Input
Amino acid sequence: MPGKNLSREEARDRAAIIRVESYRVHLDVSAAADPGRPTFRSTTRISFDCAEPGATGFADLLAPEVVSVELNGIALDVAEVFDGARVTLPVLAAHNRLTVVAECAYSRTGEGLHRFVDPVDGETYLYTHYEPADARRVFANFEQPDLKAPFTFTVTAPAAWDVYANAVHERITEEGAARTWEFAPTRPISTYLTAVVAGPYHVVRDHYTRELPDGTLLEIPLAATCRRSLAPHFDADEILTVTKQGLDYFHQEFDYPYPFGKYDQCFVPEYNIGAMENPGCVTFREEFVFRSKVTEAAYESRANVILHEMAHMWFGDLVTMKWWDDLWLKESFADFMGSYAQIAAGTEYRSAWITFANRRKAWAYRQDQFPTTHPITADIRDLEDAKLNFDGITYAKGASVLKQLVAYVGPEAFFEGARAYFRKHAFGNTVLEDLLDALEETGGRDLRAWAAAWLQTSGVNTLTPEVTCDAEGRITELAVRQDGAPLRPHRIAVGLYDRGADGALVRTDRYELDVAGERTVVAGAAGRELPALVLVNDDDLTYCKVRFDEHSLETLRTGLGDLADGTGPDGGSTPSLARALAWSAVWNLTRDGLMPTRDYLDLVLRFAGRESDVGVLQSLHQQAATALAVYADPAHRAEYGAALAECALRELSQAAPGSDHQLAWARFLADTAERADHLRLLRGLLDGTGRIDGLDVDQELRWSFWLALAAHGAATAEELAAELARDHTASGRRQQTQCLAALPVPDAKAAAWAAVVDSDELPNALVEAQIAGFNRAGQRELTAPYAAPYFELLESVWAERSIEIAMRIVGGFFPRYQTTPRTLAATDAWLDAHPDAAPALRRLVLECRDDLARALRAQECDAR
Ligand SMILES: [Zn+2]
Output
């Protein structure tokens, strides 16, 4: 296997003969604050056994320079054994001691040891991120999840810094301007789960105590950190409250004491993903530290991520998948638990299942209809495959299927299975079979057939109600038709809804049943009067696309917003899951070219203003923007866009002052504003000449207004520079970069393109900002000249850039707004001409192609 990749076979062969006893890793980052120093010194000592003495082995290491390699006391010739990605170990003994000293590079892409300088105060911050295989950018190792070992980290850092790692520190030694932190050995963990965070981080400490069933006291020191300049915005209390609720809940449910000692949660800059479950040292994207007002949905989303990562301490960290094929074993569970625990642990966020139905599942449905979809248990040949599989299938579909499993076997059997699984496989590695064994012991139901249908196949089923009536309008038969291959067993609820006295649509009947095969009759429904609405998959138990009979669809067209909110346990009103499901279903109809875009937008125009769940409302805003950008008949785009902007303005003026809804509509107005009077309104809000009661035009909202003005040529580079001077922060720099790239002039596009493509100087966060500003729906003519160069640069980008950056360029610069058959033909031509391009690159292009083909079908539907 050439280059940086590692195949499943190589990993399997290596695990067959090697057992790692321990790692000792020393990192010297004492000169990290000097931007002229591109590297840091990394020293690794690995003690390991080999079952086949005499065999040749290799360790993984991505480093610009290796200083020395010593195996069993013998110095090896670096030039001979190091090829830039691997250290060849020519002859292994039964027991081995390997020492590798290297100069490793600070990262600017979020992969490996990332270095960031805060523009506010000039302070330097470091953190690591490794999954799936970037620990080798920081120290030499055997980079595969099933070679677990205890790690002992030692870090030499500037004296004013704090250092965090997976375990507690045992000793700090002063050495002039530096201090060396010695950490305790970890429990056996995988390389991708190790972590170091270092810098002058602001920290809030707390403590969690719990009496275990055997009477002993479990003590978990807690810490939450962020950059110093963010400290005024850091609501650590809120974060630690959810943390303690989660620790209570998981201990009660998993019955296995938290195994990693302390629990630090570090919010770090320029982070590529939401968060990472490093045992004892979880890293989060610092955008979860809110600088400006955000809606309840953002707090809920953060609570979800906190609980997701915490669930990983058991699912993933304590018990880890053997290879990336079974990535779902941790991600699907954590994703499911992130929502489940929000309710079960008693957090204040009650909309978890609505958000799950509406947002999480939308991700799964989209991914599952790509030609590149895959079973939840995937076939991961190598690390490039692994990198692309952190996707809507592994997370959202997997979690949806676990939700269905809980409906199928019941929560008691599900959690009893999980407890058995932890006890049996603690600190080990597993595959699908191990989980099924544990669940079957406790669940009773035969899970092999269930697993074969749900975990080992791909694609989404469609469920449609079929209603027949007699002359008096009474149901003679209600059945559920299942489409899509393969057909699966579904545990579902079917809800019947009618209008109450106040006109609201309320559920009058609920039937829970197992659907199998093509058609299943709903027992008990015959004889009942035809309801206004039949909702299959009510309560969102299974994973499917919901369709409607004609009568129900008509009810939704005229009254989707009439689906009534419910009453919560505290007597207050709770947003309607059924309404969220209806929104999700009409969005799927639109995406599938079965509902004209104008009809979908009409529903948004009429009913979004009545949506009580702000998370659902914000999804509607996003989906409406997508519908307008790529699904609308181009002949009607301007007209639809104007109607959405008018709607945003109307709702903004009617929203309760200071409410989340007001903020959401203000942002949507910025997204849709085109007309001069709308842009003038935004400018007035910025310069203080205009005002909307209760609307705080804070820094993040200011930037979203500036983006609207910039994109329509109503802001100058000088004004954007002035705004940056006002907000001279990392976030401000990203926003200003995006605004500059969004200016509607060819030079702005050329500069953004060049900054990303012609140089690899930009950090990940600014690459993202440039791309977001460059590729805008309203600027099709300006970006059209870049469609051809895009296809020409794909292969070199894939070969030369880190995979994280390459993925952003390939997905971000795809000419998605050149929504024409010509772009489709150009994409097909590239695919035809490059059958041997890297499979992961082809996968990304195939997915972009599929989105484009879907958009063309939707446009056709809208034009009919
Ligand atoms: Zn996860």
